[in-house]
Design goal:
0% strand, 3 domains, single chain, disordered N terminus
């Protein structure tokens, strides 16, 4: 019974903190735009995690953890997006596991813990509630309920008495109490709001009581059989198909095939040689960009399987040199894919998916370079996985501070047919779909079109641009919607003044 009551305050205090966070979330988010409030709420969750783990302060380096968390949360202050929120959730997961003493030290294992943490998050609150109920049954349900209620009877009763006395003695408090409208408070009770209040405590509970599911129990390794050593001398079909001799021949064939592809790219892409009849550079670039990335990924998988640490193939100098040459050719293929994509974008403009393709190709090239480093330094596959995860994390973190909408819009305007006189016409409605981040580039395009005869859709687009700015400014009047990126955009809009629909000349009809 003593163990139950010693554990009960832990559950009760965490639940109280979760309810308090739900009240703050109601004030910050319910019916409000999302902006700097997401950053503030993440800081509140972090403070709550620290409050429920006071033992973590015994570590002399505990101050490094909040600093690292703050750095990870900075993208939320720049702009609230799916990427910045995902990074914040991962950082809060690591922070909670670290303070609870459950965090591993390897980057690869930390990534696995984050994945398990996310999988268990939807069920953590319900699971803990069921466990608490079972404990209550074991030690006596009625006594536990009475004890949990009794600890609140005296504070709430005396608190109500003191509040009533203060209302009599202080006219200001009496005025505040008179403002309480019970009927209006009942109007605030809505099904959606109740669901919001149920969701928030269950969500933050995962960070207040971080636990990882035990999906697979460790299976003890069986002792080696007596005839194991004798079996190693038996040659199997697997040894023939994937043995040292097969891998050596495969690397020779692969290097020759990849050298042919590299030579073709050097001739047509880098050298500018004329393509066969009926084949344009755009088609050549588009057809080869993504299949070459798949080829590089397959090559990386083959290298990891063929040169396992400690294997016979990884110790062979000739095989290692052939692998170095082959991986280097794969890196050249990725570079060629980037060039192909760049040529394609130069003709067909830039989009979100093509920006993502650039980032993906860069990550593949970095991963291939890390494979060479792993082989040369004789590191483990876990080291390789950790290095790739670190590269991916840094790339995603840096991407939070890049205004991709503005980048895409500026590129498409600067390379459009209307501005340069070559290429394809600007898809102005796609620019409009990019949101407020495309306002500056769209303004430049509309101003340029206002000086020359333009298509009939330009005036319609200009009108929509004006109404979009009114809508945007209306949202930004709410402090909750503030972000550093929006602050910079508002400075631009204020310096430019109210948007005026440019005087687009009407096209002269043919007679």
């Amino acid at each position: 019974m003593t163990a139950l009551f010693s554990a009960a305050p832990s559950y009760c205090s965490r639940f109280g903190v979760a309810v308090l966070l739900a009240a703050l979330a109601d004030f910050l988010f319910y019916g409000q735009p999302a902006g700097i409030t997401v950053f503030l709420f993440a800081l509140l969750i972090a403070a709550a995690v620290v409050a429920v783990h006071p033992a973590a302060f015994s570590d002399g380096r505990v101050w490094l953890k909040p600093i690292a968390l703050l750095v990870a949360l900075l993208p939320l202050a720049e702009n609230v997006s799916t990427l910045s929120v995902s990074i914040a959730l991962a950082a809060l997961s690591v922070f909670a596991l670290s303070l609870s003493g459950r965090l591993r030290h390897s980057i690869a294992r930390i990534a696995g813990q984050i994945a398990l943490f996310g999988l268990a998050a939807p069920f953590r609150f319900a699971n803990d509630f069921i466990r608490w109920r079972r404990t209550a049954r074991r030690f006596g349900r009625r006594r536990v309920r009475l004890a949990a209620i009794a600890v609140w009877v005296m504070p709430l009763t005396l608190g109500a008495v003191f509040l009533a006395l203060f209302g009599v003695a202080n006219p200001v408090i009496d005025y505040w109490l008179s403002l309480i409208d019970l009927v209006r408070l009942l109007d605030l009770i809505q099904l959606v709001r109740i669901a919001f209040w149920l969701f928030v405590p269950a969500a933050v509970w995962t960070f207040l009581r971080p636990r990882l599911p035990r999906l697979v129990r460790r299976i003890p390794r069986a002792a080696p059989a007596v005839g194991a050593q004798a079996d190693k001398t038996v040659t199997t079909i697997e040894d023939i198909l994937f043995g040292k001799a097969a891998i050596l021949r495969a690397l020779i064939v692969f290097n020759i095939l990849f050298a042919l592809q590299t030579a073709l790219d050097a001739t047509y892409l880098w050298g500018g040689a004329a393509l066969p009849d009926g084949l344009s550079y755009a088609a050549y670039a588009h057809r080869g960009a993504y299949p070459l990335i798949v080829t590089a990924l397959l090559a990386a998988g083959f290298v990891l399987a063929a040169l396992r640490p400690g294997s016979e193939t990884s110790a062979d100098p000739l095989i290692r040199r052939l692998v170095y040459a082959w991986v280097a050719q794969n890196i050249m293929l990725v570079v060629s894919s980037i060039l192909r994509l760049d040529l394609y974008i130069g003709i067909y403009a830039l989009t979100y998916w093509r920006v993502a393709a650039f980032a993906w190709m860069g990550l593949v090239a970095a991963g291939l370079a890390l494979i060479i480093a792993r082989i040369a330094l004789r590191k483990s596959n876990e080291w390789l996985l950790s290095a790739n995860l670190l590269t991916l994390s840094l790339t995603l973190y840096a991407g939070c501070f890049i205004n991709f909408a503005a980048t895409i819009a500026n590129y498409n305007v600067d390379h459009s047919l209307e501005v340069t006189g070559q290429g394809i016409p600007l898809d102005a409605w796609y620019l409009h779909s990019l949101g407020p981040g495309a306002f500056p580039a769209l303004d430049r395009f509309l101003e340029q079109q206002g000086k020359t005869p333009a298509a009939g859709t330009v005036r319609e687009l200009a009108g929509v641009r004006g109404s979009d700015e009114i809508w945007y400014r209306t949202i930004q009047r709410n402090w909750r919607a503030w972000s550093f990126r929006d602050w910079r955009l508002l400075r631009y809009l204020d310096s430019k003044g109210p948007f005026v629909v440019p005087d687009v000349p009407e096209p002269v009809p043919d007679r």
